[in-house]
Description:
Layout: H1 19-30, E1 34-39, H2 46-54, E2 59-63, H3 70-84, H4 96-105, E3 110-115, H5 120-123, H6 126-138, E4 144-150, H7 153-161, E5 173-176, H8 182-191, H9 197-207, H10 211-219, H11 225-233, H12 243-252, H13 256-267, H14 273-280, H15 287-297, E6 301-304, E7 318-321, H16 324-333, H17 337-341, H18 345-359, H19 361-376, E8 382-387, E9 393-399, E10 404-414, H20 416-429, E11 440-449, H21 452-457, E12 461-463
Parallel strand pairs: 1-4, 1-5, 2-3, 3-4, 10-11, 11-12
Antiparallel strand pairs: 6-7, 8-9, 9-10
Helix pairs in contact: 4-6, 8-9, 12-13, 13-14, 13-16
Amino acid sequence: MIIFIIIISIIIMKFYARENELILMEQLKNSAPSFLVITGRRRVGKTELVREFCRDKKSLYYYVDQNKSIDIMMEEFGRYTTTILDMPGYVKIDSQESLLEFLFSYEYPVVVVFDEFQRFLKVHPSFISQLQRFWDTKSKTSRVFLIISGSSVGMIKKIFLDGESPLFKRADNILPLKPFSPRECLLILADLGVVDPEMQLDLYLLFGGTIYYYTFLEKYRCTSLEEALDQLVLNDLAPFRREMSDVLIEEFGREHATYYEILSAIAEGKCAQKEIADFTHLAPTSLPPYLKDLTDLLGIIEYRVPVTEHDRRSKMGRYTFSDNFFRFYARYIYRNMSMYQGGQYKLLKDRIMSEWKGFSGHAFREMVRTLLIQDLAGQFGHIGSWWNRRGDEIDFLALGEAGNLAVEIKNLDLSYSDARDILNALLKKIPLVKDLHGPLMLGVAARTVTGKEKLIREGYFIRDLSDLGIGG
């Protein structure tokens, strides 16, 4: 008789970083009653942070489902509460009033979490006022640590920072959870078994700082860009097969197709509002609500102006992706849906791989810009990018009272001659930047720069990936 032994390994990705956030949360819990708001875009790790904090604590986690009525939701919350706290059968919680009354009168310390809290604005706005009333009248005698989490940065700000909102200034702290930094992500990838620096970089350029995606790299044992494409995107059972469409449908329902078109336009390099309107055949005046949703509600894109223009209402503003994977999906999956749905995965992968170096250049520039900002922020008053109407651009421009720095960023391995050519071209752009005063240093940042030391001696600012703490 042949015995087959099947070993099933359950992989649970360990919790990374967020030490300062956990320390803050512990401090607030120990000084309860406390009120914390956690915000940040989707997939950035808000729920994982809350779960890690609550792992060894008495806690109640309520998920606000916008597809349920307030009555159904309160019944669900009531059943959940009595089950988790092992309450006797005669305890009945089936309304806003009874739920909040119970939470604020519960005699033991408890962590109470409302996830996607901003959805109450749509489901039942009066719950927000009810919570404010209970917090104001009963929190001082309670032992509750209240955590509000939400992925709509704009709506959370409206609830807690708008002077007209019932919960204005009620929170002890508002914690904006940011994506993981490039350096953190590359360390995580190394920990997951991705040892090749080139593969680490490619996977970061695909997924960016959204930690959610890295859990699937571990589950599916992907250690290269090709493996990630094959296992996670380009097959009939891929977990990210409908990633972008699922998010847009969940948030926007039948209107999701319009958001799709806008994201596709931006992925194709149409970054100004008029360019987006022309590409999507939408009236320019109809675009602002959609763009605001994608910026504030989902955080998929962001709005930028040239660093020399400090007014965000500038007509020179552009929209750009802040999520690497959504940019990839909009460019390669949505724009090739017939090929994708038809199962022509090899053809699609061949196209992606042949264009990868050029396509990932945007994510590479964003990564290097982020690292330069982290390293140089204390030395300059204003840091960003610069461009004008005729198409001239400078990838990185830092302005300060003591001097300025202009840097071109290239997703390339540069020779000494290549670097000098880029620096000479950059020098010709400088007179186009208005109101640029004080001394100026020119620079280049790239994957590698041959002759780097010589260029530095000549007075240039030169950085390659090793200087930025990237790579082996």
